[in-house]
Amino acid sequence: MSIGIIQRIPQARVWIISYHFVWNLKSSDILFIDNPQSYLLFQLLVSTMTSTPSPTLHHIGITVDVLEEMVDFYTETLNLDILTRFNVGDEAFATAVDVPNAHAEFVHLDTGDGRLELVSYTPSNTQHTSVGLNTSGTVHIGVTVEDIDAVYASLPDDVKTVSSPQTTDTGTRVCFLRDPESNLVELLSI
């Protein structure tokens, strides 16, 4: 004699795979499970499939005008390695970025815990604004370096710096500089 358990499916679509059968269940379905082991497996599957995982950072993107100049800056000045280069230019991409007939060239750089994405669009919309860090909407990239003073001393003469390295109340040493297209980059030694 088997004991049956009636289980209402949570507010989600769930695929249950059992033996050689696959059921596509939705929230209005009722499932009859005839043994406790299957019920525990079902609960585990439902809790895993219906929980919302926390998002993880994949990349920070910067739209640039002169891609190779920016790649040179980030690879030569900050020693970031190129992970990948690719082009995208189909209708789905143009729709996704809301730029008619968009085509883009991408370079992903390794920042250790994530990626820095440099992207150059055709057609482009060149609009440079050099704003201060206290302006709402201003973004910057923060890069941890081992010896900020050595990195600062080795910066090429044409790199625009906002300040020399400073020690903050927290003990962190920071300085800001601008890449060739005036995007803010923070160097930190923690």
UniProtKB/TrEMBL annotation:
The keyword Lyase applies. Residues 56-190 form the VOC domain. InterPro entries: Glyas_Bleomycin-R_OHBP_Dase, Glyas_Fos-R_dOase_dom, MMCE/EMCE_epimerase, VOC_core. Gene3D superfamilies: 2,3-Dihydroxybiphenyl 1,2-Dioxygenase, domain 1 (3.10.180.10). The keyword Metal-binding applies. Signal peptide: none annotated. GO terms for biological process: L-methylmalonyl-CoA metabolic process. PANTHER family: METHYLMALONYL-COA EPIMERASE, METHYLMALONYL-COA EPIMERASE, MITOCHONDRIAL. This is Lactoylglutathione lyase. It comes from Haloquadratum walsbyi J07HQW2.
